Amino acid sequence: MFGLIKTWKALEARGIMGINRRNADYVLKYNKRHLYPIVDDKIITKERALAAGIHVPEMYGIIETEKQIDKLHEIIGGRSDFVIKPAQGAGGDGILVIADRFEDRYRTVSGKIMSHEEIEHQVSSILTGLYSLGGHRDRALIEYRVTPDQIFKSISYEGVPDIRIIVLMGYPVMAMLRLPTRQSGGKANLHQGAIGVGVDLATGVTLRGTWLNNIISKHPDTTNAVDGVQLPNWDGFMKLAAGCYELCGLGYIGVDMVLDQDKGPLILELNARPGLNIQIANDCGLTQRTHAIEAHIEALAKDGVTEDAEQRVKVSQGLFGHVHPG
What we know:
Strand order of the largest sheet: 11-10-9-8-7-12-13
Number of domains: 2
CATH class of the largest domain: Alpha Beta
Strand content: 15-25%
Distance between the termini: 48 Å
Shape: globular
CATH architecture of the largest domain: 2-Layer Sandwich
Number of strands: 13
CATH topology of the largest domain: D-amino Acid Aminotransferase, Chain A, domain 1
């Protein structure tokens, strides 16, 4: 027991944030409860983003009741690829990614062949709340399937890599690239076996990776290096993430984004309780960074000054970038 306490004190000294501190000092302090539906429901998030002119994957349709499942054929139309997901899902559960059609059937991104009836059954399961937060009845969202930018071809296994940026009061504090693996079934979910790779906030260059709690430098499936990769349009991602503070009003969020080969940076979803594995991927604690931002905001408040998204990005890049912008 003493050894555990000693270990935890050493982690705290390095600024590693634990779940209790995250909940008490950040989630409860900065996230007003009545604003949670904006980020907990992907459809509401998407509608808010569209109204604000923020790019998101195109929404093809929504199914809210069992009776509306009959509309699925009409919503899908002649499309050969699309995504079906629970509006209030968490951890990537319940998401169905269709990559192609095979005669009168559908092929998932992992190669599984499904009938239309099987897809309807999946939608029905979503509606019952099988995948929703708290098990409440849910809605099914049918949307555009993201095609990852070619830069990810050598460092990702199937699926769509995504970028998570933690944002405090509109200031990005830490970023991570999540790469699907064979173990994760092509999903960018760390708990299912995806890789988390730290990203330098100033440059958008990837750092080292973490996979199943091990530090790695190569992708286990492609064997290519995951570090030293320059992510395209990095300032665009940073500004998108910073702007999500105005979008949802929540002060402490995780912003999940993707890079589509045709449409560029898109916001996938927002998270009011972002996980803490991002610290392992960056070999850096969140606490020192969040304290630095809180001190910066306090200093601005004394002078009655506020900063827009672009200014906030520059502040974060100056404070936390491994390579400071010139």
